[in-house]
Design a protein that fits this description.
Blueprint lengths: L1 H7 L4 H25 L5 H12 L1 H19 L4 H12 L1
Helix pairs in contact: 1-4, 2-3, 2-4
Keywords: Membrane, Transmembrane, Transmembrane helix
């Protein structure tokens, strides 16, 4: 139900995959920024920030997989993909 709602709102699997990759980069950036901005707080605080943002990536990848599955079964894939599947079925 959530996946259908996201799909109806225009969110596609590619968007979720891009968000996952961006969150990995953002994880490194927040770690470095925290380490530089708060040197007295130490490495442990920077690690916590990096891990906090890094935990988003698996969620976005999971949403991407679920949206991809929904797109394949909903018939919203591009015509070329459907044509390839029909050609394979025809033999």
């Amino acid at each position: 139900m959530v996946i259908k709602k996201l799909h109806d709102m225009g969110v596609r699997s590619e968007h979720a995959y891009m968000a996952a990759i961006a969150s990995i980069g953002l994880s490194v950036a927040t770690w470095a920024a925290s380490l530089a901005a708060e040197p007295r707080k130490g490495l442990a605080r920077a690690d916590r920030w990096g891990i906090f943002v890094g935990e988003w990536a698996p969620t976005f990848f999971g949403l991407g997989v679920a949206l991809s599955h929904y797109e394949q079964h909903d018939g919203t894939l591009t015509a070329s993909v459907h044509e390839i599947r029909e050609q394979k079925k025809a033999g």
